[in-house]
Amino acid sequence: MALLSVWKLSFEAFLLVLFSRVCLFVPSDPGQCYSWDIFQHGHLLGNKLRMIENIGPFTCIRECLLRKSCKSIDYLQYYKACEINFDNTSKDNPLEQKLLPWRHLEKSDMYKLLDVSPCNDTVCGVNERCEVLANDSVSCSITGNPITQSGLKKRSKYY
Description:
Strand order of the largest sheet: 1-5-3-4-2
Number of domains: 1
Number of strands: 7
């Protein structure tokens, strides 16, 4: 009986990992992978670390979790646009409600969605991105300087 319980738990864990991988790498309707309820409606102005286009929401979440500097993301589903932020929402830094349906997610809410082990916030430094190498060791690469809101507006077609 105990062996059957262990097998069932292992099989459920395998399905969860397989399901996460499918949502990460196979283009699909994000609504099939999770509920949009985990995101807040709105867009955090300024404080952009990086903008990545043509990626899904789970890949956007993954990109944030691989960076110590990332504190939150903004995602625009229609354009598959991901903004990685180096700040959180606060009383002094609220979400802006735009005409476009931006979705916002704080990093603290991402850990329950994806596991990026052995990469985590303590592995790499500020403005570095963690990468897992073939031998399961990690490498940290510099991801560049944060971009300003005014610079982002000039380069973005999503505002």
